[in-house]
Design a protein that fits this description.
alpha+beta; BirA Bifunctional Protein, domain 2; YbaK protein; Rossmann fold; 3 domains; 9-stranded mixed sheet; 5-stranded mixed sheet; globular
Length: 565
């Protein structure tokens, strides 16, 4: 491809609304263009990258035994109502009506559609197992689109769905997908980590995410260097320190004038924050919920939501707390009535805590669970952090950041039971198929590759997913034979099967080199009067600073060898 004919332009300035490195570089390199919030057009170079990622995914899905299908974007809302997932997805579900006023949704995912389809065609145990996948545009009404392709409302995604006769079959399908996903990220040239994850609105039991490690990643990963346990912040579980304050003592009310935060109360009473109980208030589906957690811990809202099984969860506002008759800064579950109480299991990890007195400037010492208060639910609803102890081996947690680029679930039989995907087993009895779900966000994977591979000059594409292999850069000078040599070399490279971006513009070396670095093409080949004096070209890896002269007759073979390896 000649740059003079390439659709799109590179930009020197960083877009004002681009809040991540990948967003900035994708726009500056002329790879995507924003149409509206969370909605992007792919320009030719960006589309080439996306298609290469798709092809790698297809090859690995096919190798694992997958069969590709294509499922409708438009789906009847009644399918979602039948499974109850219309409420689970809430406002993120795009809904519309056809001309006959029948309600439809734009598919954010396709479990309902594929399950009903399999129920129609796979009716015997002999028809299973099945691995069916598609690469499709999906839609979610994301409330806060950000990060360019990281968090969008319209996105390209690969979904594979497995259907097995039993749990053992599901385990085998899950194992195949684990390996296939690792192959995909390895082939894309990316460093990834497998972590335990929350299933979210998809549902199911076992759930894992693949994270591309990147400092700019929005997800914090908690992991143990010793036993290799890893989980995202939403799922991670740590050992909570035991707080031994001796045998339970009688409750004692103490004055705490002007003390409203855990830090202030702990400092005033000269106790560690871990010896206090913190009250936090949430609104779950419109109702106030009282959450109790040890003072040195933070509430994990995903874990809390999983315990409450609600569609919408948010922190209560100060006016809502006051209107409910709660004394902010001095609230506790001791004697509190009229609210559902959810307690972190840290309340059971010690004795004689300090808690609010439910009246201004007052706290209570020697609060013990369950002697002094009860909870409707006691569970782990706390964030884990680096430095906490690993529950598997007792090692010390570390943390890093990553971008989720794949999520796999063991769905079980929930959807197959609801939608009639049953089969007749060897005994002639009807049983629901056991399902799994395996997704990869392709545009997000593209963005994550940039977040992991860039410098201050631009993108550094891994060779397998680069839009082009070679950036051919002639530096023209009047009267020189650079143009003739460059044209001949361009033809030779393309004949050899290499993908070449040929900078045939009459621009300065600085402009051309800057664009080469910005676009991130893995190999730059420069033809100039100086190099031709030695019958050579200048060769440079995008990932390296140094250049070298390579004989003109050897450069095609050298490039082909590097790309094939």
């Amino acid at each position: 491809m000649r740059i003079s004919k390439l659709f799109g332009k590179t930009l020197r300035e960083v877009p004002a609304d681009a809040d991540t490195v990948s967003h900035q570089l994708l726009v500056r390199a002329g790879m995507v263009n924003q149409l509206a919030a969370g909605i992007y057009s792919y320009l030719p170079p960006g589309w080439r990258v996306l298609r290469k990622i798709e092809n790698i995914i297809r090859e690995e899905m096919d190798k694992a035994g997958g069969q590709e299908v294509n499922l409708p974007v438009l789906q009847p809302l009644e399918m979602w109502q039948l499974t109850g997932r219309d409420k689970a997805f809430g406002k993120s579900l795009f809904t519309l009506y056809d001309r006959r006023e029948r309600p439809l949704v734009l598919g954010p995912t396709h479990e309902e559609v594929i399950t009903q389809l399999v129920g129609r065609y796979a009716q015997s145990y002999r028809d299973l197992p099945l691995l069916l996948y598609q690469i499709q545009v999906k839609f979610r009404d994301e409330p806060r689109p950000r990060g360019g392709l990281i968090r969008v409302r319209e996105f390209h995604m690969k979904d594979l769905y497995s259907f097995d006769i039993d749990e053992a079959g599901l385990d085998e399908s899950y194992r195949k997908m684990l390996q296939a996903y690792q192959n995909i990220y390895d082939r894309c040239g990316l460093t990834s980590m497998l972590v335990e994850a929350d299933s979210g609105a998809i549902g199911g039991k076992d759930s894992n995410e693949f994270m591309v490690i990147a400092e700019s990643g929005e997800d914090e990963i908690i992991y143990c260097p010793g036993c290799k346990y890893a989980a995202n912040m939403e799922k991670a579980v740590s050992v909570k320190e035991k707080i031994d304050n001796g045998e339970p003592l009688p409750v004692e009310e103490v004055a705490t004038p002007g003390m409203g935060t855990i830090e202030e109360v702990a400092g005033f009473l000269k106790v560690p924050q871990s010896h206090t109980l913190k009250a936090v208030f949430y609104i779950a589906d419109g109702k106030m919920v009282f959450v109790v957690i040890r003072g040195d811990l933070d509430v994990n809202e995903v874990k809390l939501n999983n315990q409450l099984h609600c569609s919408e969860l948010r922190m209560a506002t100060e006016p809502e707390v006051i209107e409910a008759g709660i004394v902010a800064g001095a609230a506790s579950p001791v004697g509190m009535k009229g609210f559902k109480v959810i307690s972190d299991d840290s309340v059971k990890s010690g004795t004689n805590f300090v808690a609010g007195g439910n009246k201004p400037d007052t706290h209570i010492k020697n609060v013990n669970y369950p002697r002094d208060f009860k909870a409707d639910i006691v569970a782990d609803i706390a964030n884990a952090h680096a430095g906490d102890k690993c529950p598997k081996c007792g090692g010390t947690f570390a943390s890093t950041h990553g971008i989720e680029v794949g999520h796999i679930f063991k769905l079980g039989t929930f959807l197959s039971e609801k939608l009639g995907a049953s089969f007749i087993d060897e005994k002639g009895e009807s049983r629901p198929a056991v399902m799994g779900c395996y997704g990869i966000g392709i545009g997000r994977l593209l963005a994550a590759a940039i977040e992991q591979n860039h410098d201050d000059k631009g993108i550094i594409w891994p060779v397998p997913i680069a839009p082009y292999h070679v950036y051919l850069c002639p530096l023209y000078r009047e009267g020189s034979k650079v143009a003739d040599v460059a044209e001949k070399l361009y033809a030779e490279l393309e004949t050899a099967g290499l993908e070449v971006l040929y900078d045939d513009r009459q621009e300065s070396p600085g402009v051309k080199f800057n664009d080469a670095d910005l676009l991130g093409i893995p190999f730059r080949v420069t033809v100039s009067p100086r190099t031709l004096e030695k019958d050579s070209v200048e060769f440079k890896l995008r990932s390296e600073k140094e250049t070298e002269l390579v004989p003109l007759g050897e450069i095609v073979g050298r490039l082909r060898e590097l790309i094939e390896s």
